[in-house]
Prior knowledge:
- The chain is α/β, with parallel strands linked by helices and about 250 residues long.
- It has a single domain, classed as NAD(P)-binding Rossmann-like Domain (Rossmann fold), CATH 3.40.50.720.
- It has helices at about 20-30, 40-50, 70-80, 105-130, 150-170, 190-195, 200-210, 220-230; strands at about 10-15, 35-40, 55-60, 85-90, 135-140, 175-185, 240.
- Strands 3-2-1-4-5-6-7 form a seven-stranded parallel β-sheet, sandwiched between helices.
- Helix 5 (about 150-170) links the parallel strand 5 (about 135-140) and strand 6.
- Helix 1 (about 20-30) crosses helix 8 and helix 3 runs parallel beside helix 4.
- The longest helix has 27 residues, at about 105-130.
- The N and C termini lie far apart (about 35 Å).
- The mean pLDDT is about 95.
Amino acid sequence: MTAFDLTGKVALVTGGNGGIGLGMAKGLVDAGALVMVAGRDAEKNRRAVEGLGAGADAIVVDMAQDNGGRDAVAAAVKKFGRLDIVVNNAGINIRKSPQDYSLEEWHSVLNINLTSMFVCCQAAYPHLRARGGKIINIGSMMSIFGASFAAPYGASKGAVVQLTKSLAAAWAADNIQVNAVLPGWIDTELTKGAREQVQGLHEKVLARTPAGRWGLPDDMAGIAVFLASHASDFITGTAIPVDGGYAAQG
């Protein structure tokens, strides 16, 4: 359908060199978009671009730095001449009991998961305002549920939903739609670490997920294309779970 055609559009995907970000980047490329991947690891960036094909490029950038988001936006515009779509996916987690976090660890998680998202949105705004655009912010099931081992992560991901609503309300008049995606338990490097650190997590996820499996990065492609395309032009300020039914069960 032409409503889902992204030909000629330019997307920036932070943390796009693996996991959920790469799954979304693949979907955008398949729909016709040109994609700039932003990630800290040059080799992972190279492999991601190689897999995405000629319509992709990458910038080595640390989103934890104050100018990380600005540098990523500038690189996308310099390479492709415009910017239409931003996928804010960069994120980290540190798993501990709440009383065991250092303040440095707290700030680290909040800085990358939330502050860098805000900086990237600010930097992208003038480019998106020029012709309308789409922002897709990656939250989590922890935007909805609490976890004893992820207090700063859950706090940051809850805030992602509220930031999304605020930006959606502020920028609707500029024809910028801002939505959040709340991935369930997706099989990535990040969640492999969780399975190693949290006893019984794998079995608990399978037991609660009606789909009966962990998600795959490719499962995130469709929602990325939908929220990046004209098919979602009247949808803004939402937070959409992509979780195999995990959130549907009490």
